[in-house]
Design a protein that fits this description.
This protein is mainly beta. Helices cover about 0% and strands about 55% of the residues. It is elongated, with a radius of gyration of 21 Å.
Amino acid sequence: MKKIFSTILFILAVYTGFAQEKTTLDDGSSFEIGLVDKKTNIYGFKAHYKNGQLKSIGHLIGLGGNQVSSDKTGEWMNYYEDGTLKSTGNYKDGYQVGEWKFYHDNGSLKEIGKYKDYLPLIEGKYPPTRGEKTGEWKTYFDDGKLEILGNYQHDKMVGEWKRYYNNGKLRDVVHYTEGEPSGLWKNYSESGELLSSKNYDE
């Protein structure tokens, strides 16, 4: 169900053109919303920190009659207060889809992975999927070295997952089945010495 913004952050003026109107909040931050495509009823959205720096930019789905839903659509970009890119990816009907990238505040890649495309309920036979992580996901240290590697299925951790120390040495090798620990888990020291092991299937 579509939700109309109910907090002051998303109180809308009546928009009749393509210009965006600025609203400043009590904390000094601000946002702008304006119709950008009459045919598809898509609105542009920008949010700024109180220092004026861009916080986020993207598009929202209009409901008609000058009303805008909280459902995000298309590409969105989010920023840290100093202007460094924080995350970027796409939305469909308010849910994250496709590849998303997240960044450390120093600008280096923090995490990358995919969200399953949103599928609505089909003839009551299949449950909808909304913003589910899927496939391979990687997490990195702020110096660019790999920290975590593993897979998701239906938003749950599955299969083998590996975690590394910053020196590149393996820290853990673990396994999941539908988000639950399974199989053999191993933990290593920074020098590569096996510290512990446990079999969750026994």
